[in-house]
Amino acid sequence: MKAIVWQGTNKVGVETVPDPTLLLPTDAIIKITSTAICGSDLHLLDGVIPSMEKGDILGHEFMGEVVEVGRDVKKLKPGDRVVVPFNIACGVCDPCRRGLFSACDNSNPNHRMAEALYGGVSGGGLFGYSHMYGGYAGGQAQYVRVPFADIGPHKIESDLRDEQVLFLTDIFPTGYQAAENCGIVPGRDVVAVFGAGPVGQFAARSAQMLGAAHVIVVDRVPERLAMAEAAGCQVINYEQDDVLVALREATGGRGPDHVIDAVGMEAHGHGPGALVDTAKQRLKLSFDRITALRWALLSCAKGGTVSLPGVYGGLIDKVPMGAAFAKGLTFKMGQTHTQRHIAPLLSRIEAGEIDPSFVVTHRASLDEAPALYKTFRDKHDGCIKVVLNPWA
Fold first, then answer.
1. pLDDT at site 254
2. How far apart are CA 165 and CA 33, in angstroms?
3. Model's pTM, two decimal places?
4. How many other C-beta atoms lie within 10 A of the C-beta of residue 274?
5. Which of 4, 190, 258, 277 could form a disulfide with 289 if both were Cys (CB 3.0 to 4.6 A apart)?
6. How much of the chain exceeds pLDDT 70, in percent?
7. What values do phi and psi take at 200, rounded to 5?
8. Over 299-351, what HEC string results?
9. Which alpha helices (DSSP H) does the chain contain, by range?
10. Rounded Cα–Cα distance for residues 129 and 138 (Å)
11. Are 196 and 227 in contact (CB under 8 A)?
C-alpha cells in the first residue's frame, strides 16, 4: 500500500509499504477514506519529538471502513464506517475506567522509553507518533491496523460527509477538552486562546458553545485570525500589538478569566525570551519554545485557569511561576481523552451546532502530502488544515 513515512528531520515522503495485518484478536484493519495532517505532525517533521525512525508511517487523524476484524472484536464488523481516536486505549485499566483514556496503562509497549524521559510515568500509545509512544503505524496511508478495536473506533451511521466527522479523531475533541477544562461560567467568563491553528479554532468555538461571554484569539497569521473573527471572536495580532496590554484593555484590566495555550512547544514570538528558547531548542538544550505559555501565565486573571492542549515535550525553564503562584492559577493539561468526547460532539454536529469542515483549506492526495507538510508548517498559501484522500 501507499503511505506517508518519516524519512528524517525536515523530510517526509511517499513510499510503498506492506499492508497491515491482524496481530492480535482484538485488532481491526481499516481501509482509510480520509486522513489529515495535524499540527503536532509538524513536531515530527521538525525533529523535536525523539525516538522517530526512518520509515515510520505518520498520521493520527483518520477514518474509514472496517475491512477485517480479529476474533475477539465484538462491536465492529466489515463494512462499518468509523472514526478512530488518535490515542490508543485498552478500556480496562484504571485510567481507562476513569475516562482518562490518554493515560492508558496498557497500550504503550514502549512505556519504558517515556518513563525514562518523564520521571517514571508514560502515557498511552498514539498512532504514528514516535516509538516512545508505542511505535504504532499511523493513518496517512491506505490501510491501518487498529488495536483494541472495541474501545477506540466509533461508528458513523449517518450520512455526514467525511470532512464533517474526521476531526472527531483529534482536533475537535482536543479543542473542546481545552475549553471544558476551563470550567467556563456561561455568560460571564472571558476566554483567550493563544494560537489560531486548527486546535485553537476548535477551542475558540468550543468556548463559545460552552457559554463564554467573550472569546479572544491571539495569533500573527492574518487568514487564521480572519477565520476566528468570522466566528465572532475578538482577535489580536501579537506582531502588531503588545499582547499583554491588549488583553488587559479587552478585559477591563483584569485579564482573561481563562487562557488556552493551543500553541505548545514550537511557539514563535519576539523578544529576548523567544530568542533564547529558539537557540536552546536548536542546540538540543531544551525541547520547548514557550513564548505562548509565558504569555498565558502572565495574562490570565487572578484565580483563572490556564489550559494546555498544545503539545510540550520535556523540561522547560524561564517559566513565570511566581506570577502563576501569586494569582492562584489552576493548570489543566494533557493529551485528550478522545474516546469520551466523540459521541457528545458527534451529537452536536448532527444537531447542526457546528460543521467542523469549516477549518479545511487544502484537499490533496498522498502524493501531494510531502509538499503540503511544509506549506502547512510555513503557513503559506493560506493553509490551515489539509485533508488527504489516500485513493486519489
1. 95
2. 12
3. 0.94
4. 16
5. 277
6. 99
7. -60, -40
8. HCCCCCEEEECCCCCCCCCCCCHHHHHHHCCEEEECCCCHHHHHHHHHHHHHC
9. 41-45, 94-97, 111-117, 162-165, 171-180, 198-209, 222-230, 243-250, 272-282, 291-299, 321-327, 338-350, 369-377
10. 7
11. yes
Q: Hey, what's the cell of 197?
A: 491553528
| Tens digit of each residue's pLDDT (9 = 90 or more) over 42-60 | 999 999 888 999 999 999 9
Set of cell numbers at residue 371:
509538499
pLDDT in tens, 36-46: 999 999 999 99
Burial class (CB within 10 angstroms; exposed 0-12, middle 13-18, buried 19+) of 334: middle
Cα–Cα–Cα angle for 263, 266, 267, nearest 5°? 60
Q: What is the dihedral of CA 158, 162, 168, 170, to 10 degrees?
A: 160
Cα-Cα end-to-end distance for the chain:
13
Contact 320, 277 (CB under 8 A): no
- Spell out the long-range contacts of 235-238 with Cβ–Cβ below 8 A and sequence spacing 24 or more: 235/196, 238/269, 238/295
Q: Bridge-partner residues for 307, per DSSP?
A: 260, 332
If you compute the radius of gyration of the chain from its CA atoms, what whole number of angstroms results? 20
Could you please report the per-residue DSSP string of 358-385? GG--EEEEGGGHHHHHHHHHTT-TT-S-
By the 8 A CB rule, do 178 and 305 touch? no
Q: Give the closest residue to 204 by CA, choosing from 218, 222, 223, 188.
A: 218
